[in-house]
Amino acid sequence: MADLGKPQNTIAVLQKYNFNFQKKFGQNFLIDSRVLDKIIEAATITKEDFVLEIGPGIGTMTQYLCENAREVVAVEIDRNLIPILKDTLKDYQNVEIWNEDILKVDINRLAQEKNQGRPIKVVANLPYYITTPIIMGLFESHVPLESITIMVQKEVAERMQAGPGIKDYGALSLAVQYYAKPEIVAHVPPNCFIPRPKVGSAVIRLTRHREKVLKVENENLMFRIIRASFNQRRKTLVNGLNNAKELNLKKEQTGKALEQLGLNPSIRGEALTLQQFADLSNLLCESDYSSNEIS
To answer: How far apart are alpha carbons 188 and 192 in whole angstroms?
Structure first.
């Protein structure tokens, strides 16, 4: 089968099937073989690996994965792409094409069946509108993951990697860094896609932490504190948490906990590190903050 990393081959396939791009699926197909090679290299795909690909499109990246991996399952939500994938991938015996919504796939079961429960590698060119739900769904469901190597909007990649005091730093940065080490491995301009997106993209690798990097008594509480602190970014942390009805935290409680951590009670959430958010939630767990409110 012709290499879909070459624009003329992608155009030929789209014309052959008279394919119409679906805006609701955020479809932009990669047409640059150098970027495809970078993704394979960044994901460190070897012949021992089982790979889950999310959003294969017409099979461009899938071809490269099949060449380098032991086995690939490609999950595509758009049923109009299934006959195209069966055509573009017909020369490969090590791939299965699933017409499913990735948010409804039992990935734990998939890892068990295809990789004996060992950590799997995920590769994806994600539509921008659904990037965060997919990534957080993978992490929060505690799927056995080695890494996620994904193409996302450049700003989203920068947000995942950002640290305290940077404009892009927020709840997504903290959530991703709690579970994984993020590293941007390539910047990809709009002209590398058909159709051209309006924004630049980036390839980011999220390497799952083998051990938990922090001791957190109540993950649910920590992430609720994080979200509340960034929902009202310009307010002090004390006021932001006080205004979050679902937390039911008094200003005095938060202020006292911050002082115990050696932090100024007028500090904003954007100045706290992940470790400090963990320490704060642990202190609030230990205080008079009743267990039925933090479960």
So the answer is: 7
| Six token digits for residue 165 | 């005091």
Burial class (CB in 10 A: 0-12, 13-18, 19+), 60: buried
pLDDT in tens, 21-77: 776 677 888 989 999 999 999 999 999 999 999 999 999 999 999 999 999 999 999
What are the strands, taking DSSP E only, across the chain? 29-30, 50-54, 71-75, 95-98, 120-125, 145-153, 180-188, 193-194, 201-208
Q: In the predicted model, what is the mean pLDDT of the chain?
A: 90
C-beta of residue 88 within 8 angstroms of C-beta of residue 82: no
The amino acid at 183: E
Give every CB contact of residue 182 below 8 A, 6+ residues apart in sequence. Answer: 157, 160, 161, 176, 204, 205, 206
How far apart CA 62 and CA 51 sit, in angstroms, is 10
Q: Give tens-digit pLDDT for 174-194.
A: 999 999 999 999 999 999 998
Residues 6+ apart with CB under 8 A from 240: 228, 229, 231, 232, 233, 268, 269
How far is 215 from 275, CA to CA, in rounded Å? Answer: 9
Cα(25)–Cα(112) distance, rounded to whole angstroms? 29
- How deeply is 191 buried, as exposed, middle or buried, from its count of CB atoms within 10 A (0-12, 13-18, 19+)? exposed
Rounded to whole angstroms, the Cα distance separating 207 from 63 reads: 23
Instruction: Evaluate whether 29 touches 193 at the Cβ level (below 8 Å).
Output: yes
Burial class of residue 30 in the structure, from the number of CB atoms within 10 Å of its CB (0-12 exposed, 13-18 middle, 19+ buried): buried
